[in-house]
TrEMBL record, chain A:
This is VANGL planar cell polarity protein 2. Pfam families: Strabismus. The keyword Transmembrane applies. Residues 87-98 have a biased composition (Pro residues). Belongs to the Vang family. Residues 181-199 have a biased composition (Basic residues). Keywords: Cell membrane, Membrane, Transmembrane, Transmembrane helix. It comes from Poecilia reticulata. Residues 37-62, 135-149, 200-209, 224-234 have a biased composition (Basic and acidic residues). Residues 31-113, 135-254 are annotated as: Disordered.
Automatic annotation (TrEMBL), chain B:
Residues 39-58 are annotated as: Disordered. PANTHER family: DISCS LARGE (PTHR23119), PDZ DOMAIN-CONTAINING PROTEIN (PTHR23119:SF50). It comes from Poecilia reticulata (Guppy). SUPFAM superfamilies: PDZ domain-like. This is Tax1-binding protein 3.
Length: 691, 128
């Protein structure tokens, strides 16, 4: 039970307390005696009148100016509901069901209160009540009637409790009692259904089901999803509704569309290609060098060269083949389009490029100094020199292969990857990598292994969470507001903890209800698809040749898909909406997929596998050339290698992946030799002899 | 009735004297035995300690000499005519019981209820 209560300020309380008229122990705060204990209280008004301006009548005719009602005492207050002159402060619900506690002194002391001259402020009222002055309220006596406030504060919960008296314009409660054991959401949906029914009763005959078939090309969530909410506009004033899917998903889809457009409209990043371009230049230079070594002497001082016969030709051949191997392996290993741009330098690649550069530069230096200048005549030596360069280049390529490709193949660490929004986690084994390379590796696996992130699936429905926050307002007694916030929050938390909390109950039933709904929709979808698939069949060539008695229209896959899409459209739409997947599948994509399945002779089950389980993120990627932007967040420099206890995270716009590194355990493998002849068995004896 | 290897076994025993009955040329006692150090002690339904390899009475012919003498099913035979039965093979036990020259076998048997009876009586007469 929630209740609001207002505390008096300190001096007021003291004034009341110590005045001779009223002893403060007779003030019963909320939840005290229900009025039955003290017979004195039963008669007449038992409101505490604290304003000293007017005389109070104790016998109950005149209305005191400030009363706080205890909502747990309806029988005491019901005779008063009718009197128009009586109007307490407007509660969030109409005065018949008050929502505030009652400070009730015995009526005998009401006469004693006459002597009070202190005036009480009307500050610090529960939020549900508007902060008007007393005089304004008095002026609203006449027009009180059925006043509905906007249900804030703690009154929101109680606004639901006496509904039948409230919303008389919505006479829908055909037998369903609000206090039934069903969960609130099913109640809501029942109400929704009833309202639908009532409205359709007006328009069309009952039992008529109207199916709206959207023409292909429109997105699946079109006006119908919002139309549903418009239809139920009137009833949603004081109730909290889990709208969840339709409206939010529209806005979310727009948002993602906008961000995607932004991503695609950014100009082509040249940074992506700098590294490979540099490497390409360097390797071209390195490949050209041996040929240059050979050609330059021939060009420059051909006549002075000593003729070099068979050995040179042998060297030519080996040089040629080595260069060919170098070329092919460079193409195979290094000339691949890069898949990721790393935030920092890729250390090994830089190292190798520097090495190659130094190598080639030093060879050129030597060549220039020792061959070009003195115009060396020993051509064979020059050819051997060039051959040695090619050998060295081959060895550098071997080094590159080992460093870039082989070293990280042996697993050394176990990475645990957890998605921050819904806790989906996976474990991977990687070798020795730097953090940035490990991040790229993880992202490669992420697109395949993790189910797609669905922002529409929240952890707890808002209706359950919000209940925890509402219903409790704490007002401090002190005037000095120094420690207000902490004291208040602590008090609120303590009180909330003490209060009996039923939100787990709600959550449980909500979950069960959701599951049931999904299963129901899934069953309908499966049946609809199966039936739809029976409508078409593949036409074989010989069948077409035989002249048909009843000519059948021959369709290509696209038309066939459109033809059988209509009966299953509604079931599919409902199912996608229930599982909150409608943002991922547009009508166009469903038709394309259907066409694909028909073309490849797939069964309905194969067609449905795409929709029944949320697939990996890869399935939903559009082929855009710009790539996905991920941010690597790490405390250590990203070029450092992986080690135990490292944590880094990969952040995207709305979720992030947190990666924890643990080393793989060192395995001590022992050996035990079992002689095959040592396997021997005996029977167990249990004999019984009679003597 | 568990024992610690190397330590003497203590048990409350009852003396039973069975007169062998002559049936034709066989002398029968009217009960069956099971157990022995070459048998599987886990299969013994009567022993408390499933590693007890002693000789147990598994069946008693109703009305036979053993029943008349007071032997009950589930008894563990500790001695037969002075021969120890706690560490014998099944066959040795059988041989000790079926000696053709003896007409009478004097058994020392033990059972759980004996111990309890002694405890009871001890408890009621603490002086003893």
């Amino acid at each position: 039970m929630t209740s609001n209560y207002a505390f008096l300020s300190n001096e007021e309380f003291n004034a009341l307390r110590w005045s001779s008229t009223v002893s403060w122990t007779q003030f019963v705060p909320w939840g005290g005696t229900r009025g039955g204990a003290d017979p004195e209280r039963r008669r007449g008004p038992t409101e505490l009148r604290l304003s000293g301006r007017e005389k109070v009548e104790s016998e109950g005719g005149k209305i005191p100016e400030w009363t706080i009602w205890n909502k747990s005492d309806p029988h005491h207050l019901s005779p008063r509901c009718d009197s128009p002159t009586h109007h307490p402060l407007p509660a969030p619900s109409p005065p018949c069901s008050p929502a505030s506690p009652l400070l009730r002194p015995p009526s005998s002391s009401a006469s004693k209160i006459d002597s009070l001259r202190s005036k009480v402020d009307l500050l610090k009222l529960p939020l549900a009540l508007s902060a008007k002055s007393i005089s304004e309220r008095k002026s609203q006596l006449g027009g009180a009637g059925e006043r509905r406030s906007a249900g804030g504060g703690g009154g929101a919960r109680t606004a639901r409790s006496p509904p039948t008296r409230d919303m008389d314009n919505e006479s829908q409660y055909s037998g369903y009692s609000y206090k039934s054991s069903h969960s609130r959401s099913s109640r809501k949906h029942r109400d929704r259904r009833e309202r639908h029914r009532s409205k359709s009763r007006d328009s069309s005959s009952r039992g008529d089901k109207s199916v709206t078939i959207q023409t292909p090309g429109e997105p699946l969530l079109d006006a119908e999803s919002t139309r549903g909410d418009d239809r139920d506009d009137n009833w949603g004033e004081t109730t909290t509704v889990v709208t969840g899917t339709s409206e939010h998903s529209i806005s979310n889809e727009d948002l993602t569309r906008v961000t995607k457009d932004l991503e695609e409209s950014t100009p082509l990043e040249c940074k992506r290609f700098i590294g490979p371009a540099l490497g390409g230049c360097l390797s071209f230079f390195a490949l050209i060098t041996p040929l240059a070594f050979l050609i330059l002497p021939q060009v420059l001082w051909r006549d002075a060269l000593k003729p070099c016969g068979t050995p040179c030709e042998g060297l030519y051949v080996s040089l040629a083949f080595k260069l060919l191997v170098l070329l092919i392996s460079s193409w195979a290993l290094f000339l691949r389009p890069p898949r990721a741009t790393l935030p920092r330098f890729f250390v090994f690649r830089c190292l190798l490029m520097v090495l190659v550069f130094l190598f080639v530069a030093s060879y050129w230096l030597f060549y220039g100094v020792r061959v070009l200048e003195p115009k060396e005549e020993d051509y064979r030596g020059i050819v051997e020199y060039a051959a040695s360069l090619v050998d060295a280049l081959l060895f550098i390529q071997y080094l590159a292969l080992v460093l870039l490709e082989v070293r990280h193949l042996q697993p050394a660490f176990c990475l645990k990857v957890v998605r921050s929004t819904d806790g989906a986690s996976k474990f991977y084994n990687v070798g020795h990598l730097s953090i940035q390379r490990a991040a790229v590796w993880v992202l490669d696996r992420y697109y395949n292994d993790f189910s797609v992130y669905n922002p529409a699936v929240v952890n707890l429905p808002k209706s359950i969470l919000s209940k925890k926050m509402t219903g409790f307002k704490v007002y401090s007694l002190d005037e000095n507001t120094t420690n207000n916030s902490t004291g208040q929050s602590r008090a609120m938390i303590a009180a909330a903890a003490r209060r009996r909390d039923n939100s787990h109950n709600e959550y449980y039933y909500e979950e069960a209800e959701m599951e049931r709904r999904i299963r129901k929709r899934k069953a309908r979808l499966v049946v609809a698809v199966e039936e739809a698939f029976t409508h078409i069949k593949r036409l074989h060539e010989d069948e077409a040749a035989a002249s048909p008695k009843h000519p059948r229209e021959v369709m290509d896959p696209r038309e066939a898909a459109q033809a059988i899409f209509a009966p299953m459209a509604r079931a599919m739409q409902k199912y996608l909406r229930t599982t909150r997947q409608q943002a991922f599948h547009s009508m166009e994509s469903i038709l394309t997929h259907l066409q694909f399945c028909i073309t490849h002779n797939m069964t309905p089950k194969a067609f449905l596998e795409r929709y029944l389980t949320p697939g990996p993120t890869m399935q939903y990627q559009q082929q855009s050339g710009r790539g996905r932007q991920w941010t690597l967040v790490s405390e250590d420099p990203v070029i450092s290698g992986l080690r135990q206890g490292l944590v880094f995270s990969l952040r995207r716009l709305d979720f992030s992946l947190v990666v924890t590194v643990t080393p793989l355990p060192f395995l001590r493998l022992g050996e035990e030799f079992i002689d095959p002849k040592s396997h021997k068995f005996v029977m167990r004896l249990q004999s019984e002899t009679s003597v | 009735m568990s024992f610690v290897p190397g330590q003497p076994v203590t048990a409350v025993v009852q003396r039973i004297e069975i007169q062998k009955l002559r049936e034709g040329e066989n002398l029968i006692l009217g009960f069956s035995i099971g157990g022995g150090i070459d048998q599987d002690p886990g299969q013994n339904p009567f022993s408390e300690d499933k590693s007890d390899k002693g000789i147990y009475v598994t069946r008693i012919t109703p009305g036979g000499p053993a029943e008349v003498a007071g032997l009950r099913i589930g008894d563990k035979i500790m001695q037969v005519n002075g021969w120890d039965m706690t560490m014998v093979t099944h066959d040795q036990a059988r041989k000790k019981l079926t000696k053709k020259r003896e007409d009478v076998v004097r058994l020392l048997i033990t059972r759980k209820s004996l111990e309890e009876a002694v405890k009871h009586s001890k408890g009621s007469h603490p002086r003893q």
